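Preliminary data (for renewal application), FE2/S2 (inorganic) cluster complex.
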Amino acid sequence: DLHSSDAQTVEREPDGLILIGKEDDIKKSQRITAKVNGREVVVFYHEGKFHALDSRCYHEGGPLCLGEIEDINGQACIICPWHKYRITLETGEGLYEGINPLEPSPTPQWQSKGVKQRIHKVTIGNGNVYVSPPDLSVSFDSDYF
Ligand code: FES
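Predicted structure:
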């Protein structure tokens, strides 16, 4: 499942995974950036879960590693510090606030633009946090930064 970022527990040193850092250190710092196959990736630890995303925003390459995290309708989102785009940590979906002009008194609702930011699978093992190499047979808007 490409959209799964659920951390898994492994027994042995995992093959082919990229070491990001010590689990305890990232739990303390709550975020860390790393190079994964030449791309800059940010790993967040938020409300008990690890999430990894491309660190450059799909819009114009803003540094998501410097953004604040906000809850939108029960989904944790990183807010890009450049133009305030919201991206879900779990799926990499871009959210926008839209209104339905046909409603009598339209109120803005958060909606998804689809998956825009590449997310990366996180694996926990031996007290370390690893990220899987990206599947480049699928492309995302954030690949262009
Ligand atoms: Fe992230 Fe524009 S670069 S919102």
